[in-house]
Amino acid sequence: MHEATHGSELWLVRHGPTEWSRAGRHTSVTDLPLLADGEQDAVAAGKRLAEVDFAQVLTSPRARARRTAELAGFADAEVDEDLVEWAYGDYEGLTTPEIRASVPGWTVWTHPSPGGETAAQVATRLDRVVARARAVDGRTLVFAHGHSLRVLAARWLGLAPSEGRLLRLDTATVSVLGFERETPVVLRWNS
């Protein structure tokens, strides 16, 4: 899929909690601030990252991701538009139970989001992030969002974007993707 530098690793940090993430509301383009405890979680994540050297640090342009990066000690993280959250279109701000009231069994992984992105569109932009990370002999750190990071991990592993459904990802967690010999692997998840 991508030319790999086997010394590359991709470190993922999901932003700290916001009012909507805590309530289970789908949040893509709505630019909500971190909650107070979300700011504390970002600082705590930063302490875990402080001893690690990163060749490049990237962040979603959304305020919640940029603020998490800043509080974690990476204020000069480079904004990468490819890291934005999956665009939910008409489902922005709704919870899964609200969506399922009219579309039984709906999940972002299996059903379209009217006016939003398809799984293939999300995968296309996150494949570019995988390529950026694999072009570096060293660690890439990214600050982004729940669904986009799950798709990013699936693409790192060479899986279909829908396989991100198998990778639960909580707010303010650190995950690490890398290689075992030439095979892309999960080194740590949702930690």
From TrEMBL:
Q: Where does substrate bind?
A: 64, 85-88
UniProt keywords (A-Z) are:
Isomerase
Output the SMART domains linked to this UniProt entry. PGAM (SM00855)
The answer to whether the entry has keyword Cell cycle is no
Location of the active site: 15 (tele-phosphohistidine intermediate), 85 (proton donor/acceptor)
Gene Ontology molecular-function annotations: phosphatase activity; phosphoglycerate mutase activity
* Keyword rRNA-binding belongs to the record: no
What is this protein's name? Answer: Putative phosphoglycerate mutase
Tell me what organism the protein belongs to: Nocardioides thalensis
